[in-house]
Write a structure and sequence with these properties.
Distance between the termini: 19 Å
Order of helices and strands: EEEHEHEEEEEHEH
Strand content: 25-35%
Strand order of the largest sheet: 1-2-4-3
Radius of gyration: 16 Å
Length: 195
Amino acid sequence: MRQASISRKTAETDITVQIDLDGSGSYDNQTGVGFFDHMLDQLARHSLIDMTIRATGDLHIDDHHTVEDVGIALGQALTQALGDKRGIRRYGACLLPMDDALVRAALDLSARPYLVWNVDLPTPKIGTFDCELVREFFQALATHGGITLHVDALHGINSHHIAEATFKSVARALREAVETDPRKGDAVPSTKGML
């Protein structure tokens, strides 16, 4: 069963994440940060990973701790749900257009976290949401999910479109990477014999 449930409680946030890698993309995400919830919904819908997230954070300060800590908990949940990664495709990539935006994401579920981020958001905020938090989320997800993640915004003039295309492209790449490989059955996708 490729499912996981993670609870993370600090002095700044209280978060629970439940995922099912073999879901249909259903979601119920409530973090108190409206735009972020919208992005998490996109991540679930386009990865086909069922996702339920509850987060209470120190939003009276700002959204940073909530967004980053959700990334941490979601990364931990992915690691738990993938187990020894036997039978998965491991790699995924997507070139995703959204109106003016074109974003490329490529990832490797290698257990070697690394983020390459070439995404410029032209405005400092999307509504009340700080644009710099998009990168913070993916940094936390990559680090705690053991993901080598490359994200490049190739075109775009609208910050909302660029950010949303980023979440959708990572989602589609993740969908491909976590899928079971019918040709490799129960094998770990590495010449090392483990990931």
